[in-house]
Structures
1.
Amino acid sequence: MISERDTDDKNFKSAVDSAIAACRSETGIPELEEIQQKCYATGAYMTAYAESLHEVRTHLSKQFLSLDIALKESLEQAKSRVVVVLKTYGKLEKIAEGNGSEFLKNLAEKIPENLGGLKLGFQTLATFDLQYRGLVQHRIRRHLDVLTPNRTTYRLEGGLLDKWIDIKTGKIHTSSPAEKIANNLSKAQAEAVNNCEKELKTLLKEPSQAGFAIVEEFVDRVLRAEGVRTEWQIFLQEVASDVWIDEFGTTMERTQLRRDWMQRIGEVDHVKQPDALNFLR
């Protein structure tokens, strides 16, 4: 897993690409007729422009909310990889139900309060979360200033009527106030999208790095922390008949099974099981 720590998260990258594409194809910019109607309704072009900026900005920001789902899915994949190992090699599927976060939460509830270190390890991994509003939102919002009336650099000052020369005919044309508003909205929206895209591309590794960090923390808590191996021994004594349903026999057999289990799980720390917990390193 350490080899993946500094790589772009594919799930998050795909979601970012989709969001940016949606922003460019569905701009939320009103049609000229709608802008003109706003002007008539408000009695002022500046007011109509401000309303339109608000509409385009809120439409744009909404497109990025889908990134929250991608962040959660990426982290859940990291947790699920841990759970597969716990179930397959630790046989812990026999004492807790569910997959991913649900399994970790259910297993944490099975661990007695007096085994605080072990319980904390599973609780920490189960409850850790990545959210759009915590990781991405504040980075995006600053690039939306260009679509905020009192902050935008695309203003209507200097006259509402734009004049331009057709280089083919040499004729002078005049753009209406509504056309100027639409043009400003188009430029501001494009600038915002481009800047958001640049910002988001700097975050593509974040889910991978966060997933690696929380799994490393989990391994520290449940395998390397002081006293945790003793807590495992105590916990396994309590769940022995559930973990080893088929093998459960004499006291000596149970003791050997627990010893073998602890040795197998302990190998995580030395990365001797490439098909088991090797990815945790």
2.
Amino acid sequence: MSVFSDLLGHHIAAKGIKSYEIAQYCGIERSLMYKIIKGTRPVTSMDTVLLIAEFLRLTPSERTDFVESYKISMDGFENYYRRKNILELFENFRKYSEIYTAPDHQPLVSYHDISDMSTVSGQNEINHLLFQILFLETRKSDPQIRLLIQPDTDFLMNLLPTLGYENQNLSITQIICFHKSDELTNDKKDYNLACLKKILPVYCSACRYHVYYYYGDLIHSSADLLLFPYLVLTSGHALLLSKDMQSGIVFEKQDTLKFFHQMYERYLEQVSSFGVVMNNLPTQLSYFHNIRADMEQNYCFQMLPCLTFGIPDYFFDKYIYPEIPGRDKLIAMLMDYVHSIRKRFTEHPVRFIFSEDGLQRFLETGRIPEYPPAVYRPFELSDRIVLIRQFLKFCPPNGLCMLKCTIGDLDNELFMYVNPRNGYLMFPSSEPDQLICLDITEPGLLHGFCDFCEHLDKDLFYTETEAYSLISSLLDKTEQKKGS
């Protein structure tokens, strides 16, 4: 039996339908339909699933559940929901890049009745204390916040981006625990991906944010009775917190704070860096130049196609602003990068996943979103056409994957390049015209992103022949418009 066959059997029994009636309506053999209902043979086509749903006269919500049960049966429970969670990240990236408004500042609660430490209890009191301690730290000349805490603490993770946005000299270091397997949580979430979604807004705030990780068993944990597993550490306070964020102990004595800082330093020696932020073009180019390609699986996922490897050399001198500091060196770096990536994509297969709307956006704006607008002026219309033709010329076989509809928001997009060995996410910063590139090396996330790209629904894409035909037609119309 399967999830799909169980649900199909339920609807058949509830409506009193005979299996041969469905088989006749769907145009398949009666014996095959019987096996489908029993779960011994899978349905091989979504069209057949939709015909069955039509015959059963399912309501819209029943139809949605019915189609989802088919996808779960085909993909497997964990694969289906992991891919669904990743799709949600790209579709709703704007939500994960928002900066929340901090609550109004109130006087710091005094704990001087005890010279070294005081206890605190209750969610509201802890949240208030967290805000006061962290707000005070951001007023220092060299503010530093050190955290040993999971990103599922909503109040704190909503507060950090706001503090970082208001003071971009703020340094935040956070140690988190990733789940050691690909098993989903009880609410059908990939825990490590959920952690990524929580920390993205802090990266977007453009402060100095560094995340480190280690592995543990978080879904079937027997450590729920740990006394104070979380630590929030600043130059003036150390706050130990219970896992449920209902109880805590705050320390203020400098000798005690020194002890906790030394302990934190020892922890940093035992964890791995989650990702390296690159928030300027030269640093990004150096990183891109050295990124390793995989022999078989390389994916570029961005709605406006990755046009970089098709840029002709003369574009750089023509479009990069003359007043850019170190212009000649930057142009040399760009040329070197374009030549190397063109060679890399020739030697290693890559799938360029983009959308028809994204291509149209480039023709309208002349902007490549991977590069800050402050560096170059928009390409002229004739050169936009040249660049797309170059893209088609150099695109490797089976590499053109054009979506019929855009996934996400063209105005606030999450870009991704990934293979089983390494990859990056690139997204807008809260600073105008600044992009943040986040190096991703955690194996579970890399595997999840590659699997997502590999198994996107084929119905979402034009065929490669259709894509070439549509793009050629679009370019012809643009040239005619230009001529008129």
3.
Amino acid sequence: MSRVADDAGAVAEPPPLRRNRDFMLLWSGSAVAIIGSTASTVAYPLLVLAVTGSPSAAGLVGFVVLLPALLFQLPAGVLVDSWNRKRVMMWCDGLRAAGAASVVLALLAGELRLAHVMVVGFVEGTLTVLNGLASTAAVPNVVHRSQLSAALAGNEARGRAATMIGTPLGGILFGLGRAVPFVLETFAYLVSLATLLGIRKDFQAARPGEPARAKAGPDGDATADSRRTRVRRQAGRMVEGLTWLWRRPLLRTTALLVAGSNLLFRALFLVMIVLLAEEGARPAAIGLLIGVAGGCGMLGSLVAGWFGRTLRMNALVIGANWVWALLMCVLAFGGGLWPAAIAYTAMWFVGPIWNVAVGSYQLAVTPDELRGRVLSASSLLANGALPLGALVGGLLLDGFGVRAAAAVLAGWMVLMALAATLARPVRRATMTVITDPSSPAPAETPAAPQAPAPSEALTPSAPATDADPR
């Protein structure tokens, strides 16, 4: 009798993720979208270099594409927490498909201009910010809490596999015709849109009723005072996630560390493309190398869960930065193309381990009603340096050449590793990521609402908490 009672009271095990229909639709649709987007990521600098012959122009396009990650993270977080996340993602996919299709039409008509590429890239970057925040914030509402780390690891594997496929595909398709990679990108976004239409679960928890709208005046418009009140309320909501994040020293510090490393990785992406081009590599070979690097990242995602359960957070954060610093020194001073290519490929292995551990911790401690805004705040801190990295990469290449640019980036990564080692919140982070559903969610004690001590504050130099060469 007692055994029957025990069995009745037992918590049912959630089905494996591969049998979670909604998660698999979200996962597969995003995989196709990433393949198309990654193919265009390789094609854009090749296209700009072919049209203008200028590395700085390619860097400028990269800056414009990534600028929305700096400008719109906080407003996007408010929208993701206020609007229907699934509908946000659907609109983003539809509009991104239209932008890619406009590039195809301009190329076929022989009328493509640098300004057109920059405008499409800026709009697509803005929509990608919205889409990425909504997708990440939705994961805890689509999977069981005990499967959160596994779901994020699956997303990492998806991203790395899609990169492994998309990058050589982008180079190969560009060799067939300049418009072909953007045809693939258009189709990929439409497939992602179709998968979203088939998902049944909501992407956010039920929200309490919104406060009543201000009463309109006799002419049907809200009064000026009411409009000012709404503006202040929305501004307060916009910074709420940033305030919540900033008062948690570990999350704040890891976001700032990612900012510094992402500046390097975005610059390094352009450095590697120019290095390979100077060595005579064809577009297909450039895409193949970055695809192999993506495969190395996929291997990292397969073991990311094990590292997150085994290593303490401080060892993981400090170790990842020192591995990157060592590999950057090999890349810059190894004395040849192959050492640089091997070091660049190996750097991709570490990124997923960081992303799964830090991302799981952040999602576990963040309330659902704040999740979009906290993700946007961490993305602002971590990914705000990406557009600067693209611009810096182009300027370094124009001013100093490939090898000198790589040496400057190696010195920067060593400084980042030293900062991670000396940061007090990182040294005190002795926990591992909790995956047991019977255990309470991890919690980080908020810092006192005052300016941090100089030894606890890092000067920013991404989503997200993502830290990986891309």
4.
Amino acid sequence: MAEFVRHRIPFAGRRAVTAPATCAQRHIWNLMQGQLPDAAFYDVCYWVPLPGHGTPQDLLDVFAELLGRHESLRTGFYRDEDGSLMQEVVDSGQFEAELWDLPADGDPDSVLQAWERRMRHTAFDPAQAPLIRFMVAVVDGVPALAAFCVSHLAVDLTSVRLLADEVTRLLDARATGRPLPPAEPSRQPVEQAQLESSPRGRALQARARAYWCRQLESAPATLFPPRNGSVGGAGGLAAPVRYSAGIASRAVALAVPVVARRWRVSTSVVLLTVVAQLLGRRAGLPSCTLRLLTANRSDPELRGTIANLHTEVPVTIDLAGDRVEDVARRALAACTAAYANGLYDPDDVEGLIASARENGAPVDLSYCFNDVREEHALSDASEDRATVSGAELRAAMADTVVGPDAFEEGETFFIVIDDETPGEIRMVLNADHRALTPSEVHGFLYDIERSLVEYAEGAEPEPAVGGAGRGAPQSA
């Protein structure tokens, strides 16, 4: 039977310092305030498979080392007397870690799942650093996996991946008696805040502000016009009720590289183009505006930073014309411009949106596209897959099933794309029932797959009727 012991482990860092919060930290803070009272909504759980050596104490030492290295992990947040959000880095304290002891035939995955469910309902106090907790599953005396739950105020997706890699490297060194590899030189959030208040930072924010103004002027009023007498969608629902479904598709994984080479764009732009086309056709619009999630790591000093640098930027895609590859090339250019404007003042942008609303301008940007795959460029191996037979694609489609998913979001339309399973691309769509009913969510995912397969075959897909695709929900 699995048993655990909760430890409180001391940590020590190089400095204690207080500074204004960064733009990205304020962006997440604002989102978190909108999600209250669910204070744990923006907490992130991530796990790391371990190489089968080392001791539990080695891992506790590794966790303490991580907090010493990365200031974001030992930072709390509060409002000062003027109401400004501040970040407060502490130089010492304690963190929490649970050690689960399992027998040789124990199941660490079930322990992990139970821990994640508990963390989902165990919110952090943002003022009390550190905003991270750890868990280790030990099977027959050997650590099998490690996991951490951390506030989105402290990290973004790139950061959790970097942390996972660092846990493995540090554990390998600790377990074999080698010196710990040094931390990668990187800009800490306090220095990022200083850059944002510098002339260069203010210039970047002014440029981004102008970009937002242009997007607010050009965005369609809505991607889901009222129907059946309801506001914003179907069913006459007065309040949002959201539903998620996922599709894991070998056919999409086969088709996307073929289409990307043909259109001369990245695989992410291929997926974005197809999603935008389906939304535009459904709404009868010549353009589509979606929010993209950008990592904001083009500066070399930020490549290895453990912090939340992520923001969301709108991008409007012109869908006009007969050639879809032209739409894709315009989407590539539009995305490049969007990503170049990822550093902005979130409070200023909220003011712009509120002002646009007061003036009657379109301001509905509640549609998100998030491709979380690590690689969007074509790999060298994909040269061998420059073409895929229609029979192979159709055979892969026959294996596809769409089913409900536990993914949660607060937007009208939010699609996430990953490739964690080799040979598959997985897409999860969360939507407000007033925009897409559950059966339409399933159909939309099938329509993405169908469109990509037909583009890979060299044909122009037939427009879907009402976004229904292959229709009714199926069990995964």
